[in-house]
């Protein structure tokens, strides 16, 4: 069975890593939500050896992630666990405190419906330790406007594919994040009209 491949992951992994180097500089255990093909996970685990990188996705996407984890030979990357935003999820230590002090996701919030974006923030709020770091990569609109013509075209394509998907408004994301106990630390401009938002959990 051929492994799934994303050219976008190959194109953006170095730029994302340059931000994660700083954002996760004091982090130990990172949960990646929506690991997709597994390309990001392997690249980041290889270049951030101080981290334990936990992959996750819907069960239907596990094959490529699992094979890339095995092929990498890295001892700081974990096989994918099933994470479905339509269901409640909780990863805790024996004392019922959150297990992860870092969470990363790339190109997910514009794929899922808005109710699942809301559930995403509920989940990360419940599964990240206080002072933990949340990193979100992808395209966003600002003040209700697209940042480029290509993003507007991409949004049209997304909605033709699934009317419930689409590029999210930065301000709406900040509102959800604040309600879940997060504060925006930095908003990084990334290649191809994307952003990387770094949040700190304050509550």
From TrEMBL:
Gene3D superfamilies: Vaccinia Virus protein VP39
Superkingdom of the organism of origin: Bacteria
Signal peptide (residue range): none
Matching SUPFAM superfamilies: S-adenosyl-L-methionine-dependent methyltransferases
InterPro entries named among the record's database cross-references: DUF938, SAM-dependent_MTases_sf
Protein name: DUF938 domain-containing protein
Organism (species): Thalassotalea castellviae
